[in-house]
Amino acid sequence: MADTMTPTARSRQMALVRSKNTKPEILTREIFRSLGYRCRLTNVVSLPGKPDLVFQSRKKAVFVHGCFWHRHAGCAKNRLPKSNVVYWRKKFKRNVENDRRAYSLFHKLGWRYMVVWECALRPSNRAVLRGRIKRFMEKGESAL
Question: Which of 6, 43, 68, 105 is the most exposed place for a label (fewest CB within 10 A)?
């Protein structure tokens, strides 16, 4: 199926996709703050994968992943676009490989990480997410 937008319109649309201070990131920070956890740094370039939230003194980091971009298994937002399929498959494969590489490096550095999926931020899922955050921050286990 062909793209319904012109190349110029598609380019403009894709330029609006932000890499930091996204709505899911802001909401995740608000949830952490409401639980009493304060992070000082975001999108730290010196750490693998540029985590979205960093708790340096605890050696913990949080990645806020969009279900579409990072291929959240079983999620409705994890769908393949109908146009330019070859490009998108390569793009998604690179994203997933980069994520795995970053997680591996975190373990080697002695850090723990947590992944917050975009769909976990829905109001109906937030109670479960809050519990995951508390366990991660208090027990120190990495959590996907």
Answer: 6
